[in-house]
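Technical annex B. To support the medicinal chemistry partners, we prepared a structural model of the target in complex with zinc ion, based solely on the information shown next.
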Amino acid sequence: MDQNLVGIVLGVVFILFLAAKFFGNNKMPPTKAFRCAGCKKNEAYSKRTIEAWRNGYKRIYCQACHVKWLKNNPNTRNTSSGSQGCAVVAVTIISLPIFTAVIGWVVF
Ligand SMILES: [Zn+2]
């Protein structure tokens, strides 16, 4: 009974850890608008610029400047969010067997 309890507690801690990571990735910018690094115009955050802000970009561009930039840099892709996603998947894949082993060891 006590051993089951330890397993449940560990499971809850693990889920809370994942939830904290999930919500950590969903934090919002402190202001509703940003100043475009290109044309210095104040622009409301969009899905794309919020993503850029979360990735730690200091220079955020409005939609018009972003389109202009894409035209000037057709071969440049934003890969930072993709690699971050891969890292999260890798950590999950590595930690799952360890987590299962620990739970199995504690419970059984
Ligand atoms: Zn702009």
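Notes passed to the chemistry partners:
The CA atoms of residues 3 and 107 lie 5 Å apart.
The first strand starts at residue 33 and ends at 35.
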